[in-house]
Amino acid sequence: MKKISVPSYLMLFFLLFFVNKIFSNPVPSATALSIMGPTTITMPGYYTLSKDIQGTLTIAASKVQLDLKGHSISSGFNNIEIFNEKDITIQNGTIENAINDGIFIDTCTNLTIKDINFLEVLMVLLCKIVLALLLIIVLL
């Protein structure tokens, strides 16, 4: 029977250690894709806002992480729209001055919204009231 020396054990240990490290995480960590204006997200991934934007951001893909990075999305009809998607996370920012809904969600599963501030300026609220009153007058 052949004996294995101590340096051979150490070499085997380090070889197994590094092989485990290499193959335990074969996919590199997600790279953030920067959003600089109103757009439609059509691919899964990790997205960040690089500045405040005005308009609508549509999520048309599953497995999307949207990090506002402290920025805001404002003045869209719906500031964020999600239709029939799953595994969506929206976090770390402000949704403000939406004409209709801050975040419009239609049949979305596994949705996480965290650390989001919802703000509505008085002018947008007044516009909604005036439109409602005009509708009532027209219907009478």
Summarize the structure in words.
The protein has a single domain, classed as Pectate Lyase C-like (3 Solenoid), CATH 2.160.20. The radius of gyration is 25 Å and the shape is elongated. 19% of the residues are buried. Residues 21-29 have low confidence and may be disordered. It contains 2 helices and 11 strands. Strands 1, 3, 4, 6, 7, 9 and 11 form a 7-stranded parallel β-sheet that branches. With 140 residues, the protein is α/β, with parallel strands linked by helices. 26% of the residues lie in helices and 41% in strands.
* Helix proportion range: 25-40%
Residue-averaged pLDDT, rounded? 82
Compressed to H and E, one letter per element, the order equals: HEEEEEEEEEEEH
Q: Shape, please?
A: elongated
How many alpha or pi helices? Answer: 2
Q: What structural category characterises the helix and strand content?
A: alpha/beta
Main sheet overview: 7 strands, parallel
User: How many distinct domains?
Assistant: 1
The fraction of residues assigned to DSSP E strands is 35-45%
| Parts with pLDDT < 50 across at least 5 consecutive residues | 21-29
What's the alpha carbon Rg, rounded to whole Å? 25 Å
Q: Assign the CATH architecture.
A: 3 Solenoid
Distance between the termini: 102 Å
- Count the beta strands: 11
